[in-house]
Design goal:
Length: about 450
Amino acid sequence: MTKTNLLNETHNPALVSWLESANAKNNDFPIQNLPFASFKLKGDKADFRVGVAIGDQVIDLKALFALNIFDGDAQVALEQCCQAQLNAFMAMGKRFWSALRQALSQALTQGSSLQAKVESCLVAQADVEYALPCQIGDYTDFYTSIHHATSVGKKFRPDNPLLPNYKWVPIGYHGRSSSIEVSGSNFKRPKGQTKAPTATEPSFGPCKRLDYEMEVGIFIGNGNAIGEPISIEQAEDHVFGICLFNDWSARDIQGWEYQPLGPFLSKSFASTISPWIVTSEALAPYKAQWTRDVADPQPLPYLESQQNRDFGSLDISLQVLIETESMRKSAQAPVQLSQSSFKDSYWTVAQMVAHHTVNGCNLRSGDMFGSGTQSGPKPEEAGSMLELSNAGAEPITLPNGETRTFLEDGDCVIMKGWCEKAGAARIGFGEVNATILAAD
């Protein structure tokens, strides 16, 4: 497989839309993107419905289906988008995802004869609210950034930060899907049991070391039957798309509870995703070569393929910003805490899928993987405050003079993501944000 045949006319960087906002520089949603979400008008009592972003608008796909202006696979796919969430459409598979994308691209391209009809289905993004784009049945959180794993490991095991299995196995744990919410869902500081290093017994109360984790969320489209693993060569055909993901973490609760079975209440109180799922097809121009240091163990055969070597990596820029309560009251803009890239991930999306199913585990439409905290090799590329503040030993000073070791009540964490490179249109993921409220 060559990079050329991963691309088609929908990726053409010269494409422009008749919707002018889609052609604006650094706009997240040009015609080359076309991500999916579940939306409705703010305050409307009507059901949520599936939409596609273009510029500063949302295309109401249920309204578009009613117009009957597409045919073949695209119209069949549209019918499955006439629901509140995307699961039925996601389960249809790559053929139908691609057909609808192509039809939408053609209908939105400057000069399209369908412009007037599609315009009747547009809703301004400024006027809508979002729900989870799909029902998330199961959620698995991976640990794919070796930079994050090493940094965190050094705090607990200075002489041996990485456990022996890290370079052999895409490490993951089964998370809690019920507490994953869409961007803008604020939450109360969690309470739990913690134990200070000098204490003789644990105590109970609000978390004192609340943290964020900059991750990407990976959505399964069509799943597999139980007992039938997905090969690494077929893995990406089962991935519908990617969103931004903040896996909030209570570090003090985590430190006391995680041995011997791993995270529990320290992770299950809140997780936040961006509304928009950027499809795997939209991300094709940003697939890149994946490499493994020759000094490291090379993947076992079920985690190895030439296709994964050639195109397994994804170059997604990931930015974290903070807006404190004081900044908000003073109308100060959020400030950057870090910026990293998903291309630095030690394990690829295809390897995660192949490993997850190699034992016969069945994945279902809407299942989500967290990538694990995405940190880069440089200190300023750390994807969590645990790393940025050296576990609280080195406070971070913000431009307004405030300091942080971990997050405080009133802090809003904002994450953004985008892909850009020469010869391709820049596409974005929108943003994911949530504000921490005081514990009861």
